[in-house]
Input
Amino acid sequence: MLDAQSRDFVAMVDCNNFYVSCERVFQPALEGKPVVVLSNNDGCVIARSNEAKALGIAMGEPAFKRKAFFEGNGVRIFSSNYALYGDMSARVMQVLAGFSPEVEVYSIDESFLVFRAMQPDRLVQIAHDIWRTVQKWTGIPVCVGLARTKTLAKIANRLAKKTPASNGVWLLDEAEDIERQLAKIDVGDVWGIGRQYSRFLKASGIDTADKLEQAPRDWVKKHLTIAGLHTVLELGQIPCIAFEDNPPAAKSLVCSRSFGTRISELESLEEALSSYVQRAAEKLRVKKLMAGVVRVFAETSRFHPDPQYTGTGSQTLAAPTSYTPILHAQALRILRRIYRDGFKYQKVGVMFLELVQENNRQLSFIEPSGEERKKQQALMKMLDKANDKFGQRILTLASSGVGRKPWHMRQERKSPRYTTCWAELPMVK
DNA sequence: TCTGGGGTCCTAGGACCC
DNA sequence: TCTGGGGTCCTAGGACCC
Output
């Protein structure tokens, strides 16, 4: 835990326009040009270069509505390439690990670093060093926000991003300075205050971060729950949000996709679900986990006027497992149970819950014998190895269908996996 | 035609038990 | 006729994050 009394600081390091920056590392000609990266299915804009932001392109905007605008303004468009971004992220995080023994990787493009018993001047020097080093070694530009709490460090990071003269570093430490800055921050831009809370707070006369910090604590707890109270305390330099060095194991795992076109037939839903289950089971095994519960959902699109339906169903397994055929059979059974005729489905997905470690699970009387389990594990190991070596999906269950399917997602403008797959590099094609 | 995917946490309310 | 109260567990829904 951070100590409010001593001079412990937290640095929030956030990559600038991360996905766009990743694409630019390998195509430097994109520098200075408007660039956007789209979500899965080429659906919405999920990353924008500064030039794209300046053109008024919003986060989360549906790409198809802006097609003409993109063309007219020379906006370069990319489908998302998570293999590339994940690898670049690992490189950035590795550099950061050289600056503090206490690093919390918070998301693909953000980390918190703790610096204990530090003089502010020295801290700012270190932050500039981080800024320079990450850029030089990975090609990714970052900003560094410094403060006594995570929530304030997030705000400091934002200030660094919005203020070119800051050279990528901002320190929030003196109470009066914090007060002054918070007065300029929209309450909805505070970490932990989302759309609903922002609307509610503004209706209650609280429109800036400083007013939130001064709001009565019990009123905040009543309306924004305990998490909201923590946010308010953190704005007042009281650390409440724990620093997670080694994050706890995942509690759930999902694989779902929107379809390229909406589908009605159970058979197509089964094919799609089948491939998601295989993917999810694979993730399970990579993390050395087993699922105790399988949940499946199927839903229509809320953007269409057609009748809406969301079906969900769960099944507790006789014993936790990561064996694809068992998970697959359960998932299909649930799908058939929740399927309703006459709807156009936009999405199906599978969720694994009650995850347990492979090696410390509770023994059950009904689970397969040791022999049987060993056979299953050997088979999955072989499957994962082959898919890893020869590329995704060389070995799959026949039920997930063969060849290009209409429900497959669109990905029309994906860059090569420059750093992780030689077969996709431009020169060997 | 076309609007992402993957997570966590908190709370209220019902079921159930003693 | 009188018709408790407290604890726990589960689930659904809603909020947040990136």
